[in-house]
Prior knowledge:
With 414 residues, the chain is mostly helical. It is built from 16 helices and no strands. The chain starts with 11 loop residues before the first helix and ends in a 22-residue tail after the last helix.
Amino acid sequence: MIEFGLPRIPQRGRIFSSVFIDTFGWGLFAPLAFLYxxxxxxxSFSAIGSAVSAGTLASVPMALLAGWLVDxxxxxxxxxxxxxxxxxxxxxxxxxxxWTLIAAATFLVMTGDRLYWASWPVLxxxxxxxxxxxxxxxxxxxxxxxxxxxxxxxxxxxxxAFGRGAADLVLALNVVSSLVAAxxxxxxxxxxxxxxxxxxxxxxxxxxxxxxxFTGFCxxxxxxxxxxxxxxxxxxAYAVEIVGLPGWTPALFLGVNSVVITLAQTILxxxxxxxxxxxxxxxxxxxxxxxxxxxxxxxxxxTATAIAxxxxxxxxxTVGEMIALPAANALVASSAPAAIRGRYMSLxxxxxxxxxxxxxVLAGAVLDRGALWVCAxxxxxxxxxxxxxxxxxxxxxxxxxxxxxxxxxxxEAS
Length: 414
């Protein structure tokens, strides 16, 4: 039996503290990030939006560079660098007085994000073998949900107390949190002997791109990541403008989503440790398809009934999130060849970058056309993802097939 709690990994105090501090700082500033540029630049929201989009787009290729750097140096070095680059990007915000500087600041922040997600999962592989890997990813997900929510709450309190002046304060705290996280991670000792390519001859990337099971899995998972647009992008407009629900319902369900993940992520991952990761990801895809079918049913119900039905629909979505993410990250990280694990992880993380570029366009187009279009488009993508995952995921074989239940109770966690 797997006990509830943080996984027993080396130096977990430093590891989880860095996640907590870094994510809390991001949660503080995230609600004000877009508005911050409008406070001091005088630019229109459309100009600011285009600059942010340009910086984000320019950062996408950095994901591939991040994978190469992980393999050529070490995941810890790249992870520390990601925090420093992020801090530099946020430090540029007060100086971002025109379109170019806004794009540059965004590019640095997003580059730090690309570096982080290419290196963090690889570092965990060196510290957490077997199904302990899934437990560690689950614990990080729970911590991030909690700290983002608490950071956002603290930001609201500071904004209420200090008005616009709070933006500079929370920005400074965000920069400091990134630097503190970098210092904590720099002290992590990794003893795993990871083979590296001392001479780059090109086959590193070629091996990754010609692994057809893996690339097919990544393409299928990219389709699945569109479903994550539901809570923050699709639901607010869908629930209020299309279904006619009260304006407080999207925020309520987004809050419930965060609370459930915080409380239940590690428990659920532990309970499902006997299920193959491939099966968990496929089940999540089918569950997401069912969620969008349920979302369409909500659109034809009276208001009170619609809210009642939306509760289990959104809880089902949250369960899908919780079973898919630790399993997918662990499957890729544990099955990739050790010498080019960074490349594999960076290709996998592009799933999120690619869908992030197209989700706003797709959401805008279907929301203008009504409930059926929204649910058919996003539900259809989930079904296509399920078909692709069924064809590819089982061909990816993790290096760690044993069941590793070694986690400790929360009360004993350091």
